[in-house]
Amino acid sequence: MKKPADYEEIYPRPLSGEKLTQLPPALLPSRLPLMGTDVTLEPLSASKHASELYEASHGSDEGLRIWDYLNYGPWPDAEAYAAFLREQSASKDPIFYAIRSNKTGKVCGQASFLDNQAQHGVTEIGHIWFGPTLQRTRGATEALFLMLKYAMDELGYRRMQWRCNALNDKSRCAARRLGFRFEGIFYNNLIFKGKNRDTAWYSILDDEWPEVRQKIETWLSESNFDNNGTPMSSLTEMMQQRKVSTRRVEE
In CATH, which of 3.40.50.150, 3.40.630.30, 1.10.510.10, 3.40.605.10 is domain 34-240? Predict the structure, then answer.
């Protein structure tokens, strides 16, 4: 059994019952496109996206590994997958998006807002998977940044969550790379494809967001990439240099 990542610091926050001076707007994410430079997030439509999403996630051995840590999939054929995608398309929570490459025009991944608690200003990015052509690209980072920016800037959310299987080191590294802070592990949290799942929790708080946003925008800027499209700086290293939130204190 693979050992979970053990090199993360937990940033406990002081408890506070302080009255809020401003309540969140209590807005839910809308089914509208989120447009970036490299990718566009489109509200999921089974009839529009099923074929390309199936190919992106089932068309190779690398694609099939997408389902290793998701609670569902893979499917035996495109028809079965399309039927499942209809359920996702109709869902009110989670709210699903298909990720389209602006360069190729192909749909190559998926993500969602889930556990939407608009009255409290809390949401989560989850159900994330990137097809092989999107993995480890500028567009992959931009896709999640578009969701973070939409929730935190436009909807005025106070907390963005990230939860994943504690054994999924790639997901845990992705969370830290995007500026999420590790909060801890819920043990025996779920039964996952007949196996126990311990769940790792991460978050970005509203007072942390301006610095996180600035660092991601700097990393995504055209000046950070050479002529071959290779980034000249590490976003992970940039995030490691962040300040600690005023609501998180080091032990």
Answer: 3.40.630.30
